[in-house]
Design brief:
Strand content: 15-25%
Largest sheet: 7 strands, mixed
Shape: globular
Number of helices: 19
Strand order of the largest sheet: 16-17-15-14-20-21-23
Radius of gyration: 24 Å
Helix content: 25-40%
Number of strands: 23
Distance between the termini: 81 Å
Length: about 575
């Protein structure tokens, strides 16, 4: 196969390589990229144990994650030597990581205070209620103008608040000012650069923008948000750009000792960079367990009014401008296929069966599958939704249901595209695609047909790792060669397999209308239990009274309290 990544300009020879720590939800991987053409030359990966103490909970061991990174680094370095490189050829290391996953640890001992709470954990539903109860309008979007995000279990601030309220070790460490908290990138860098012996306590703007604690405009921790979630700024890392030297690796026990870490990018932002979506109006979607669609809005911080979140796409250096993006997240994509295999037994080999079986029928037979197993993410943000399969007839077979599951991924992606169009006023002209599910050509064709735009499947195996390597190579202080971020799309070329729409606008709109009908039927299945704060009559009364009548409300609360005591 021809190399997927080729240089468009003359580049001087180099024997340097860039290492990338790629810490995902299920896999930890370490890869090396050859310069200057950024071809991946070797890698090593291991699986991460998934811990589910209760339904809807998702945890991982921070120690296991750290040891997995160290192990992969050592093994990747051995493989690097086998292909003819030396330790001195390693120029720098970049980190890309699962986002929102939250870790708390003792800064004096370095020991985790609890397991990492994974991004898709939904234990904080009641914590959301507590926060909303103290807001004047009890509105999930109350902090959108500050943070770009809704109040949702998805984001790190809710996880930190839950940990502080429910885990004694965390609460005590916070009280004694020895609690450090951060996303996976922060945990890794602190440990890899020395830990309790002076490790760098940092994060980057892309990860910080996913916490619900950073001001999306100033790029600093916001005092109001920190106070709202009962946290303290001293427990949070310093926010830095996505491309600069944060520190040097120490005591990993491999050729990496002394090598600088010069890039941090959340995995979806790293994929956006690796897909070369550098221009305003370009977008990519990653198809994995969930889907993550990012739309580059340039230097415009667009605040969505249609259910999307505003996030930082990247900031390629301390003195370079910040680039923003709109993002829509689909909670269930590839996981729906796993559910069909493990729970219903409709599949055996997901990659092969899903394409072959679904492709054996020409349509879903008007069957629609809404896989809202734990609620719906963007653009709905409805935690009361649950999965449904509707439109069944006596002629429906497993072939139709599997095809409907694939179409559900495409419809959910179109939901996000439609919301982006409303927020930005611009029609998306093409969609870059990556992730394990893109190997299913039927899925890619369905996506083009149901969205009405070309889908470009990248030939790069891991765009997130590639994007991180690119950011690490050009960091100030590395100075390998002239490769400015503004010219990346001219200097590098990624080949794609293109899927063009084959349906009419009328046909796709009719099917999309029925999808929206199915979504409506998935709502309201769960009666969400509200916290005591949300059901407390005294607070409900106060929250409904304007601030100008505060004295009157206080009097009414006093009377109400005395009445309850008398009764």
């Amino acid at each position: 196969m021809a190399t997927a990544l080729k240089s468009k300009v003359a580049q001087k020879p180099s024997n340097k390589v860039i290492g990338v720590i790629d810490e995902g939800t299920s896999i930890t991987r370490f890869a090396f990229f050859r310069l200057p053409d950024f071809v991946e030359i070797c890698s090593h990966q291991v699986s991460i144990t998934q811990i589910a103490p209760h339904e809807g909970w998702a945890e991982q061991s921070p120690v296991e994650i750290l040891e997995a990174v160290r192990h992969c680094a050592v093994e990747a370095c051995h493989k690097l030597e086998q292909v003819g490189y030396k330790a001195t050829d390693i120029a720098s290391i970049g980190i890309t990581n699962q986002r929102e996953t939250t870790v708390v640890w003792d800064k004096k001992t370095g020991e985790p205070l609890y397991n990492a709470i994974v991004w898709d954990d939904i234990r904080t539903n009641s914590t959301v209620d507590k926060v909303l109860a103290r807001l004047p309008d009890q509105n999930h979007n109350h902090f959108r103008l500050i943070s770009g995000l809704p109040v949702s279990p998805y984001f790190s601030a809710l996880k930190l608040k839950w940990l502080k309220e429910n885990i004694y070790a965390v609460r005590r460490a916070c009280r004694e000012k020895r609690c450090y908290a951060g996303t996976i990138d922060t945990w890794l860098i602190w440990n890899l650069t020395g830990g309790i012996e002076g490790g760098a306590f940092v994060t980057d703007v892309t990860n910080a923008s996913r916490t619900l604690l950073m001001n999306i405009e100033t790029l600093h921790w916001d005092p109001l948000l920190i106070k709202t979630f009962s946290l303290h700024v001293d427990m949070l890392p310093e926010i830095r750009s996505s491309s600069e030297i944060y520190g040097r690796i120490e005591n990993v026990g491999s050729a990496l000792d002394g090598v600088p870490i010069s890039a941090i990018l959340g995995n979806q932002q790293a994929s956006l960079v690796g897909q070369q979506c550098f221009r305003e109006g370009q977008a990519k979607n990653t198809y994995r367990k969930g889907c993550f669609l990012l739309y580059n809005t340039g230097d415009r911080c667009v605040h969505s009014t249609h259910g999307l979140v505003t996030t930082v796409a990247y900031k390629m250096g301390p003195n370079r401008p910040v680039v923003y993006a709109l993002e829509g997240s689909v909670a269930v994509a590839g996981f729906a296929m796993k559910w069909l295999r493990d729970n219903l037994g409709l599949l055996t080999d997901i990659p092969n069966d899903s394409e072959e079986i679904a492709g054996s029928v020409f349509s879903t037979g008007d069957v629609y599958f809404v896989p809202a197993f734990t609620g719906l993410y963007a653009p709905y943000w409805r935690k009361d939704a649950r999965g449904i399969i509707c439109g069944l007839t006596s002629f429906t077979t497993k072939h139709h249901i599997i095809r409907a599951a694939l179409e559900a991924v495409c419809f959910q992606t179109r939901d996000i595209i439609e919301a982006m169009k409303k927020d930005c006023g611009i029609n998306l002209t093409k969609l870059h695609a990556d992730g394990i599910m893109t190997n299913n050509k039927l899925l890619m064709q369905l996506q083009a047909d149901l969205s009405g735009i070309p889908v470009l499947k990248t030939e790069v195996p891991d765009p997130a790792a590639l994007g991180t390597a690119m950011a690490a190579a050009q960091a100030r202080g590395i100075d390998l060669y002239d490769m400015e971020p503004d010219n990346w799309d001219q200097q590098l070329h990624i080949t794609h397999e293109t899927f063009l729409p084959t349906t009419t606008e009328t046909e796709r709109n009719v099917r999309y209308t029925k999808w929206k009908m199915a979504v409506q039927r998935s709502l309201g299945w769960v009666v969400c239990k509200k916290s005591k704060d949300m059901t407390d009559e005294r607070y409900a009364l106060l929250a409904s009274i304007p601030a100008s009548l505060f004295l009157v409300s206080s009097f009414l609360m006093l009377v109400f309290s005395q009445t309850r005591q008398t009764s």
